[in-house]
Amino acid sequence: MGTGLVGAPECGDVMKLQIKVNRETNVIEDAKFKTFGCGSAIASSSLATEWVKGKTIDEALTIKNTEIVRELSLPPVKIHCSVLAEDAIRAAIGDWKKKQGAAKPVAVEAQ
């Protein structure tokens, strides 16, 4: 499980995105979100979770906020909502990678 929590100080939107990743295939099997903010922020979060499901970690990292803007037809004043979604994806993946590094057994040299 990887969790990304991001916020936009200019409007008070807060977005939490969680991903469940298959360790063998690195495929995102599930994604959930909780967003406090405007409709555009909620829509951006929802779209992000739909788009990352079924993708590998590397594929999910290619999702750009401009694609979210285009898909949702966000006006210029709401572009920051799409940036939050991209940032949340990256933060969740970063958290997952960090946890995977910590979960790996460390080889200790015998003395």
From TrEMBL:
It comes from the Bacteria. Pfam families: NifU_N (PF01592). InterPro entries: NIF_FeS_clus_asmbl_NifU_N. GO terms for biological process: iron-sulfur cluster assembly. SUPFAM superfamilies: SufE/NifU. Residues 2-101 form the NIF system FeS cluster assembly NifU N-terminal domain. GO terms for molecular function: iron ion binding; iron-sulfur cluster binding. This is Iron-binding protein believed to be involved in Fe-S protein formation or repair function as a scaffold for the assembly of the transiently bound Fe/S cluster. The gene is iscU.
